[in-house]
Specification:
There is one protein chain. With 721 residues, this protein is of the alpha+beta class. The chain folds into five domains: 94 residues, Sandwich (Immunoglobulin-like); 113 residues, Immunoglobulin-like (Sandwich); 190 residues, Glycosidases (TIM Barrel); 132 residues, Glycosidases (TIM Barrel), CATH 3.20.20; 96 residues, Immunoglobulin-like, CATH 2.60.40.1180. It is 23% helix and 25% strand. Strand 7 and strand 8 form a beta hairpin. Helix 6 packs parallel to helix 7 and helix 15 packs parallel to helix 16. The chain is elongated.
Length: 721
């Protein structure tokens, strides 16, 4: 009920008052806040649901407001000279600050235009909750994209999570809603309450939040990503300067929550940074690849079911703690790659699913929008605002967090409409094919803008099919990635190593087939986390034979990867010969290093990593067929292969692998015209746990050389012509 003197007021005013009270007003600023009034005066209108009386501060004095609607609408006539900074209101939690409804929009027409076109590359600065100075007042601007919502409200600690109190203003056809709240600052918890066209109330976390509560709590948290003072300018400049130069790349993949624990508890980003930088330098790793540290609700998803595409997970500390992590690694010459997951998102009701009551981020039809493998939802890449959401997320991590590259997860599931689906369970593209045209264009757009803005940043595809041109430039009709995980090499190699050496000669093709396509893309050879979980067993446990043979096979596997063309990646635990599968709730089994065999594996990995970094033929021409030449790939009877690795140095490397436990004391390799041969590395050295069968000297003959091949070993020689 309104007061008597307003019953005959402008019907438009009464209609707006009714919509506000009913929670359906799309522009509350038109009614609330500071407005012109009769006789040159101004009026302030305030909304406090169910309040009987309220007070506010005007020119430094506390005065009462007049109740004009029993639902809780108040007003006060004030002098014409009153400005938005001359009065302050009380929020439910006692905060005294300027009135949110007295300020002009924080969202501009250009922002809306760029978003609608999918090219707002700094979208992370204008959507979400961002501390700012607006019209001379400090506060937080809240913006959210919810085009089908009837009403959007801000809820948080400051208003006791009451969705009636602070409705946002709709910015028209852009679908964005906004509100500037003076006086709020970092640390404030909040969500958006969305009233759908069907009248349902949804309470959603902010898709653009920079921070979130620690699970199982789900509120978004106001955070500032610009406070940290970076000290890695030299690294970033070098990265751009050397973008097109050949370089070694030896990646250590890890899960931050289970790399190391302290008294059974997770370490902070800052603690991990110091230990990890020292470890990588000691072990000869050039980069780390972090399994997702974007916010996610379920530990057991390992981070791959993301709900915070702009938020560092709070499990290990704050945003600034993570920035320190990256900064510290850069200052120690270690690059940081991040697993990034644009292929799907979880079905949690508080997150992206049916965000405004409609299939906003996903497809409406489950044949397009539901992922059968992971019971998750698939992004609608054909919608400009969604592709912009994802591209801006990538750019956020690269610009604001100084990440050196993104490993894009599950690319194959994005490329194909029939991925993991039975006949009739998917919808063909407009040409009748199975390729996801919108996803392909999204990936091209993503890689193009990343390379344009950030030379030297590396984009890596986890792509498990034979889709052509994944690492070819977009100008050549490729997807534009810099590197692609070589899943074929990984599967063939692990399948081969799983065989008992007695039967390996029947599977010799598993070793040689990969070289038929090794230079068709720019590959990373990977022994990743996916291969040591879900009953697949650890790398060491996969190996056949007795205890000694298992250790020797693991040394052979890792050295074989180091010698093959392509960049390298090993998942944590593999470097110490962990017996058990990886478990996200346990740390790496570091205690194994007390045993000589595991200490030998650890020392072996360290030495071959540094050997790799030192010798340019192993990495200088990774993507050029002229950097690799077979010596003998046909010795199936002995399961021995040999080849040369070449670079710009004045020597070449001869790599020989013996895949059986048989010793060959006088093995002949046809290698004419060699002037000198010197063994540089042997995985069978006693210090690694081997038998010590090494070649102290090799005398080249006119037609070739005679070598002593240790059992289950890799031998690397320097050869000169």
């Amino acid at each position: 009920m309104i007061i008597d003197e307003l019953k005959d007021a402008d019907p438009t005013f009464l209609s707006e008052l009714s919509r506000l009270v009913q929670g359906e007003h799309w522009d509350p600023h038109h009614l609330l806040g500071l407005h012109p009034f009769f006789k040159g005066e101004k009026v302030i209108r305030l909304w406090r649901p169910e309040a009987k009386e309220i007070y506010f501060e005007l020119f430094g004095k506390t005065i009462p407001a007049r109740l004009i609607h029993k639902a809780g609408v108040f007003d006060a006539v004030v002098p014409a000279k009153t400005t938005p900074t001359d009065y302050r209101i009380y929020h439910q939690n006692g905060l005294l600050a300027q009135d949110p409804y007295a300020f002009s929009p924080v969202w501009g027409e250009l922002d809306g235009h760029l978003l609608s076109q999918g090219v707002h590359y700094k979208l992370y600065e204008v959507l979400g909750a961002r501390e700012c100075l607006h019209q001379g007042v400090n506060g937080v601007k809240f913006t959210v994209w919810a085009p089908s919502a009837m009403r959007v409200s801000l809820v948080g600690d400051f208003n006791f999570w009451d969705g009636r109190v602070n409705p946002l203003r709709s910015m028209g056809h852009s679908g964005v809603w906004e509100l500037f709240v003076p006086g709020l600052e970092s640390g404030e918890r909040y969500k958006f309450e969305i009233k759908t066209q069907q009248g349902e109330l949804l309470v959603k976390a902010d898709p653009y939040a920079y921070a979130s509560e620690l699970r199982p709590l789900t509120a978004s948290v106001v955070s500032n990503v610009d406070n940290y003072q970076w000290n890695d300018a030299e690294w970033v400049e070098k990265r751009a300067r050397e973008a097109n130069e050949p370089c070694p790349m030896n990646i250590y993949e890890l899960h931050l929550g289970s790399w190391k624990l302290k008294h059974g508890h997770r370490l902070n980003y800052r603690e991990i940074a110091v230990d990890l930088a020292n470890y990588c330098k000691e072990m000869g790793y050039t980069h780390v690849e972090l399994m997702p540290i974007t916010e996610h609700p379920l530990d057991e998803s390992w981070g791959y079911q993301v709900i915070g595409f702009y938020a560092v997970t709070s499990r290990f500390g704050s945003t600034e703690d993570f920035q320190f992590f990256v900064d510290h690694l850069h200052q120690n010459d270690i690059g940081v790659f991040l697993d990034w997951v644009p292929g799907h998102f979880p079905t949690d009701d508080f997150a992206l699913r049916r965000f405004d009551g409609t299939a906003l981020y996903e497809h409406e039809d489950p044949r397009q929008g539901y992922h059968l493998h992971w019971s998750t939802l698939i992004f609608n890449y054909g919608r400009h605002e969604i592709s912009n959401f994802l591209i801006a997320s990538a750019l956020f991590w690269l610009h604001k967090m100084h990440i050196d590259g993104l490993r894009v997860d599950a690319v194959a599931s994005m490329l194909y409409l029939d991925y993991g689906r039975e006949e009739g369970g998917w919808i063909p593209n407009k040409y009748g094919g199975k390729e996801n045209i919108e996803a392909i264009e999204f990936l091209k757009h993503l890689n193009s803008i990343v390379h344009k803005q950030l030379p030297g940043v590396v984009m890596i595809a986890e792509e498990s099919t034979s889709f052509a041109g994944v690492t070819h430039p977009v100008d050549w009709e490729g997807l534009g990635f810099d590197l692609k995980w070589n899943m074929g090499w990984m599967n063939d190699t692990l399948r081969y190593f799983h065989k008992d050496p007695v039967y390996r000669h029947y599977h010799h093709n598993d070793l040689t087939f990969g070289l038929l396509y090794a230079f068709s893309e720019r590959f990373v050879l990977v022994l990743s986390h996916d291969e040591v979980v879900h009953g697949k067993r650890s790398l060491l446990s996969k190996m056949p034979g007795d205890y000694w043979q298992q250790m020797a096979n693991l040394r052979l596997l890792i050295s074989y990867m180091i010698c093959q063309p392509g960049k390298k990646m090993l998942f944590m635990g593999g470097e110490i010969g962990q017996w058990n599968e990886w478990c996200c709730g346990e740390e790496v089994h570091w205690h194994l290093l007390q045993y000589p065999s595991h200490a030998g594996i650890h020392r072996f990995v360290k030495e071959i990593n540094h050997f790799y970094l030192k010798h340019t033929p192993l990495w200088e021409r990774d993507f050029d067929f002229r950097g690799f030449e077979w010596v003998d790939f046909s010795d199936t009877d002995n399961s021995v292969i040999s080849y040369r690795r070449k670079g710009n140095a004045d020597y070449e490397l001869l790599c020989v692998h013996n895949f059986t436990p048989t010793t060959h004391s006088n093995y002949f390799l046809r290698l004419p015209n060699v002037q000198s041969v010197k063994e540089l590395f042997n995985s069978d050295e006693e210090k690694f746990g081997g038998t010590g069968k090494i070649n102290h000297s090799v005398t080249p003959l006119e037609e070739g050389i005679h070598l002593s091949l240790a059992p289950l070993s890799t031998l690397i020689f320097e050869i000169r012509y």
